[in-house]
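Predict the holo structure. Ligand: acetyl coenzyme *A.
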Amino acid sequence: MPCMLIDPSQKYKPYTPLKLDDRQWPTKTFSKPPIWLSTDLRDGNQALANPMTADQKLTFFRLLVKCNFKEIEIAYPAASDTDFSFVRYLIENGEIPDDVWIQVLTPAREDLIRRTFEAVAGAKHVIIHMYNATCPMFRNVVFRNSKEQTVALAVKHTEIVRKLTDEYSASHGMKFRYEYSPETFSQTEIGFSVEICDAVKTAWGKASTGIDRIIFNLPATVEIAPPNHYADQIEYFCAHITEREKIIVSLHPHNDRGTGIAAAELGVLGGADRIEGCLFGNGERTGNVDLVNLALNLYTQGIAPKLDFSDIQSIIDIVTQCNDLPVHPRHPYAGDLVFTAFSGSHQDAIKKGFEEQVGRHADNLTKGEAQIWDMPYLPLDPADLGCSYEAVIRVNSQSGKGGIAYLVKQHLQLDLPRKMQIAFYQVIQAISDKEAREMTVEDITTAFRKTYHFGANYHGRLTLKSFRVTQEPSPNPSNGVTTPDERRRFDGTISVDGVLRVIRGDGNGPISALLDALHTHLDIDMTLREYTEHTIGEGQNAKAASYIELVATTPEIKDTRRAAQSWWGVGLDSDIAGSGLRAVLSAVNSAIGDRVLPELKLNVGFNSSTGQAEIADAIINSLALQLPRRLQASFFEAVQRAARESEGNITYEALTNLFQTTYGYEIEDKGRFYIQSFKLEHIGDTGRRLFTGEMIIDGESRKVAGEGNGPLSAGLAALHSQIQGTLACREYAEHSVGEGADVKAVSFVELIYEMEGETKKEVAWGVGSDTDITSSGLKAVLRAASRIPSVKGRA
Ligand SMILES: CC(=O)SCCNC(=O)CCNC(=O)[C@H](O)C(C)(C)COP(=O)(O)OP(=O)(O)OC[C@H]1O[C@@H](n2cnc3c(N)ncnc32)[C@H](O)[C@@H]1OP(=O)(O)O
Ligand SMILES: CC(C)C(=O)C(=O)O
């Protein structure tokens, strides 16, 4: 079975180095781009298993024009009808911009040269490119020609080309230039290459300076030596060809040794003016030199390549569709992975690099200096090629905290503190190791949201609904005067497992006040270990992000740094205090896990005024009712009475029930008096209203009627017709509850009752609700009346 040889010198001969004393190219540097020629539609196309269709060639040609190529080899027109017709199509349909030179290739054969001229007839600017192979093997094997015959072939056909250019210039007003390629230049004796090119120049007879320079294209048809050898050959050629000023020296490197790029670059240092190649290195065998790569190599040295690859992805899309060949994911500048770092230390450096660069660029801007791109691992700003930073960092099991933190910052705008980065990294590492796959940005942001209960759909068992942080006055014991101090009070509503709770706590600041409240009301005893914050955005849209590390409070561990376990939390809010409080709950949610929380109870009556506000808050939270101040006082008394038997403690549920049953709010029992049906009418133009309807009075249905200034007084008048004594409305309030289709009106009515012939008065509140505001008011009136036991019905 054939295999690699132990001694390959028995099979392969080394190249013969050129003896070039005092070579100049190693100390030269780049200062300007070469002249570019794309040969995608010729050398690239001829190497495809399925050469491009006419439509594909047209699409590709337009792309090359868009990329700013001014010299484009469009075909080998004598090769096929497709190529010939394509050239005709471009010319006849005005596809070739005036500043673009089309180039066409022909061998040194008269019939094919004539066919080539027929193809380009009528084009404005044409480079006729003729070639014949010159190296010993081709002379001996393919052409079986001597050196003299090889020169004669080139000279004879150059003369034919010259004659035809004169004829076509005269008949069609065309402008021609001539390119000659000693094919297999890199394998040809260098002296013979110079000799044949000099002879061709003479045969052409009209090489001049500027635009009339003859092009000698020196192909590394097969790359057989390292790039320094090619550079030597080019430098030698440039130094020995006659009338160098009348010549454009062009390179045409292939990539058989994988050093096509280096060969082209060193060849330019060796004195070449022009490079022929293909986009992304398509071409025979291992391809022609990649022009995108070469141009962007110059670009990253700060030299404008005069080619535009700003939207690299659309260029890749067109080229891969036309060539039906993929671009390798590691292809320089263009591959899917070339701006991507998976490994932790690379990611860490990139993250730090970006952070440093933002500051440096801001500094440059104020000083009016250039904002130089200087990033670890990223020689080019992906944005310059129309790429986003999205793929710069991708995460798998090789990744570290820096990369993950970078993605969290990019996608959630959260700049995690170092210790939290480490904590979250462990979360991602565990998932990535377990699932043995890359973590997408979505995987990471979702894991972040879940871990820290961050965002609407990921909230934990405890969420902040509303809060107030006030400065707590502290009495100065020496003189009894109240002075403000640094302490803060937290009053807030939090949802605990879906149930709203009002909690309160005191501390040195909002965070310790909330921790105190959680301890007091929910037996959650935690201590703050670390806190950081930053703003996101600017102006009115600015938000505060807070990060908090909590540890369990234990009497044994006084120093929080010594606690082995901690929980991180994150909070985002337009208000800095709010973001800190949300961060506390985020950490607490992780800390409590599934732990059963004690049932929350209100402690009623520890302070008369604050207790009343607290109970009113509880009703806001449970029933969304904003009680008028005097109803608050009334209900507070009812609560105090009810709580007396339980040492001042009352559950939220019991409190809510108490309110509903006391004031008849949305309960089944309709009370002593209620309306079955009613109608309200205006009485002429008096502005007064007439209430007629059916009321239930102590279980008996009665037809009723009454007049008043408004609906409520008319309803009251109707009720008066059925009872003894007088009821008057002392206070009325209303507001809406709910939104959209679910909105309803809630009315609060306080009635005052006077018995006939008695001075004693009684008062009572009633609460009614209905989708109709009048009905809700009337219900509240009858509820209040029902609550006054001394109201007697008429017989
Ligand atoms: C390194 C390069 O990329 S060079 C460009 C290569 N590109 C192509 O070949 C694609 C287009 N080519 C073709 O379609 C065909 O080869 C044609 C139409 C040009 C010629 O086709 P054919 O006449 O059938 O000849 P064939 O394809 O066999 O070519 C080989 C013949 O051309 C001769 N030949 C090869 N190169 C040249 C040349 N540059 N000048 C003159 N004759 C040449 C060979 O010596 C051989 O001659 P022989 O038949 O007398 O032995
Ligand atoms: C025709 C020549 C320039 C060629 O394509 C080559 O040598 O690769």
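Confidence is low (pLDDT under 50) at residues 605-610. The CA atoms of residues 677 and 738 lie 25 Å apart.
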